């Protein structure tokens, strides 16, 4: 009986292991400045990792820094994550500067490849200008106290964390490991993951949770990320915002230019998303509504097609940003976006064409109709230059600058009250 119990126990373990999903580690790559696009990208990656039952999330970092506001939101997400973040400065020769160094400090396990470095996290103004001493002290002290709490939570070097803020200190990965700022320094990514496996970390409120590493699954940047990454770069976002304000001002002060208003409105929405004043999904909805408004305005405003083109571009970009598969479980496919955009543009332009025909037809009064019809002379007097003519079943008096005969066919060239000006029809 003991043998049978052991046999069935092993069999059940084998069945459970065989039926269990294979462990995975989701891998993302951040090679750009930290901004709204990075936050959106990591948020979607974490959601994918949770839904796919991945045991951990590998973040390859190679960044010069970026937005402090975006960094704070990313750190909040890492600290609240149900899966451990394994952050690695990669590739060799790369660095985690400024905001990247702060994110590294917040990761459950961090490391760097050989010939990488980190640090230099002193806050500066986005435009590169100088801050007043009071503002500088305020921002630095606030950032130091915030980072100090993060570093203590991860049991890393508090003094080094302060120095990268106050003194812009930057060190190699090897030196950072000696200073207890990095957990691991390895020669390659595989070695990093192997050494991270089994280490115990704090996951939310659970202490000493062992890190599991599985087969790598890439979560590559998509078109949504590329659009946001371009517009969310702090310098680009600032230029887009100021340029949009200038273009809108030009449109307001010089109505009818159209192009500045279209470009300025689209740029303003994108810059508000970059500044975290609009959520990505709400920004997408705003762009879609703006696109529809532009296409409708094309019917009534002479914009030489600028409103129509701007409306299509705005609607397509908004559709890309509206849904997020990792959050809503759905994303709009390209064929659907293209079909809806073409249908909407066709309907709007079709209605515009009909409206234009209606407007033009209203301008076709009785005089217009008279000039398109031929007339038959009923009587001729005064040497053939006066008399009566029948047009469309109506009898009118006429005058002519040339002599007419009863057999002549005439056409109307003008009207004076109830008298028509006519000439001989060739």
Coarse shape: elongated
Number of helices: 16
Q: Strand-residue fraction?
A: 15-25%
Can you identify the CATH class of the largest domain?
A: Alpha Beta
> Could you give a short account of the major beta sheet?
6 strands, parallel
- Reported by name, the CATH topology of the largest domain is 2-enoyl-CoA Hydratase, Chain A, domain 1
| Secondary-structure content class | alpha/beta
Mean pLDDT score: 82
Distance between the termini: 120 Å
Number of strands: 16
In the CATH classification, which architecture of the largest domain applies?
Alpha-Beta Complex
CATH superfamily of the largest domain: 2-enoyl-CoA Hydratase, Chain A, domain 1
- As residue ranges, the low-confidence spans are 10-20, 325-330
**Cross-sheet strand order for the largest sheet:** 8-5-3-2-1-11
State Rg.
36 Å
What is the count of distinct domains? 3
What level of helicity do the residues show? 40-55%
Structure description:
With 426 residues, this protein is an alpha/beta fold. 52% of the residues lie in helices and 19% in strands. It has helices at residues 2-19, 36-51, 68-79, 99-106, 133-153, 158-166, 173-178, 189-196, 223-232, 234-253, 259-274, 280-300, 306-322, 325-328, 334-362, 366-371; strands at residues 24-30, 56-61, 85-89, 95-97, 109-113, 117-119, 170-172, 184-186, 200-203, 206-210, 215-218, 374-381, 386-391, 394-400, 409-416, 419-424. The strands form 4 sheets. It has a 6-stranded parallel sheet with strand order 8-5-3-2-1-11, sandwiched between helices. Strands 12-13-14-16-15 form a 5-stranded mixed barrel. A 3-stranded mixed sheet has the order 4-6-7. The protein is elongated, with a radius of gyration of 36 Å. The N and C termini lie far apart (120 Å).
């Amino acid at each position: 009986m003991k043998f049978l119990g052991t046999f069935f126990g092993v069999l059940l373990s084998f069945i459970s292991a065989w039926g269990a999903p294979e462990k995975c580690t989701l891998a993302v790559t951040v090679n750009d400045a930290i901004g709204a696009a990075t936050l959106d990208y990591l948020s979607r990656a974490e959601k994918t990792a949770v839904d796919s039952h991945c045991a951990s999330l590998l973040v390859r970092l190679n960044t010069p820094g970026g937005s402090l506001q975006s960094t704070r939101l990313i750190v909040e997400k890492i600290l609240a994550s149900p899966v451990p973040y394994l952050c690695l400065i990669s590739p060799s020769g790369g660095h985690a500067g400024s905001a990247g160094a702060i994110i590294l400090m917040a990761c459950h396990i961090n490391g760097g490849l050989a010939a990488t470095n980190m640090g230099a996290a002193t806050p500066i103004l986005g435009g590169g200008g100088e801050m007043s001493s009071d503002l500088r002290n305020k921002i630095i002290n606030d950032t130091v106290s915030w980072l100090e709490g993060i570093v203590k939570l991860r049991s890393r070097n508090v003094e080094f964390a302060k120095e990268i803020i106050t003194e812009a200190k930057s060190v190699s990965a090897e030196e950072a490991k000696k200073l207890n700022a990095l957990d691991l320094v390895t020669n390659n990514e595989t070695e990093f993951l192997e050494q991270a496996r089994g280490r115990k970390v704090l996951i939310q409120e659970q202490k000493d949770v062992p890190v599991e590493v599985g087969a790598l699954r890439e979560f590559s940047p998509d078109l949504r990320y590329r659009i946001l990454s371009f517009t969310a770069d702090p310098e680009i976002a600032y230029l887009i915002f100021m340029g949009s304000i200038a273009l809108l001002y030009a449109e307001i002060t010089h109505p009818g230019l159209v192009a500045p208003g279209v470009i300025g409105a689209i740029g303003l929405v994108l810059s508000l998303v970059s500044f975290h004043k609009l959520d990505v999904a709400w920004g997408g909805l705003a762009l879609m509504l703006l696109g529809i408004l532009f296409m409708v305005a094309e019917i009534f405003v002479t914009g030489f097609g600028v409103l129509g083109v701007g409306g299509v571009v705005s609607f397509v970009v908004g559709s890309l940003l509206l849904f997020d598969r990792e959050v809503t479980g759905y994303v709009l496919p390209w064929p659907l976006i293209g079909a809806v955009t073409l249908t909407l543009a066709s309907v709007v332009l079709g209605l515009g064409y009909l409206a234009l025909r209606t407007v033009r037809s209203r301008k076709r009064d009785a005089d217009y109709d008279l000039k398109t019809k031929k007339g038959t002379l009923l009587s001729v007097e005064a040497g053939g230059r006066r008399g009566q003519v029948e047009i469309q079943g109506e009898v009118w008096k006429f005058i002519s600058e040339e002599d007419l005969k009863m057999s002549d066919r005439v056409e109307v060239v003008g009207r004076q009250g109830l008298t028509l000006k006519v000439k001989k029809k060739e």
